[in-house]
Design a protein that fits this description.
Layout lengths: L1 E4 L6 E6 L12 H15 L1 H7 L7 E3 L2 E3 L7 E4 L4 H8 L7 E6 L10 E7 L24 H4 L2
Length: 150
């Protein structure tokens, strides 16, 4: 994750990232692989993916940049980390404000941004479906509440 901030008028950026994934060598189904690949791609830019899907109603957007409202989260995202995208993000950030980016690779941050912190984080990825539990779940109702509270 990369995080940047503004000194005086410069945005401050905190950047967190993760090392690239290792490719799996298992035999697989092309349809499942296509779905899995799309899901892995969404993990390469998870904040962007969230802000264009489930969290789109929260998104503050300008061109190639998206962010959460400042009172919700400092997280922001770029479609691609280009100078134009950083310029779009700057329109969404107040002077001196801190925002955070999660990236799959190191960023070349323009000089009008100040990187305040940059570090790698670990990301766990499930590459295979989990086996179904051996026992069928038991539906519970209101009559089960007293026993659950014991």
């Amino acid at each position: 994750m990369n995080i940047a901030t503004m000194n005086d008028a410069r945005p401050h950026l905190h950047v967190m990232g993760r090392p690239g994934r290792q490719e799996s060598s298992h035999e697989s189904d092309p349809v499942k692989d296509d779905h899995a690949q799309r899901m892995l791609e969404s993990l390469d830019n998870p904040i962007w993916f969230a802000l264009i899907t489930e969290h789109r109603l929260l998104a503050r957007s300008h061109g190639l940049a998206r962010r959460y409202p400042p009172d919700v989260s400092p997280l922001a995202a770029l479609l691609h980390p280009t100078n134009d995208a950083f310029a779009d993000l700057q329109r969404l950030v107040s002077p001196g404000e801190h925002v955070a980016l999660f990236t799959a690779s190191p960023l070349d941050v323009p000089g009008d941004w100040q990187v305040e912190r940059s570090r790698w984080i670990d990301q766990m990825i499930c590459e295979a479906s989990l086996a179904l539990p051996p026992v069928v779940p038991l539906p519970l109702g209101t009559t089960d509440v007293p026993e659950m509270l014991v």
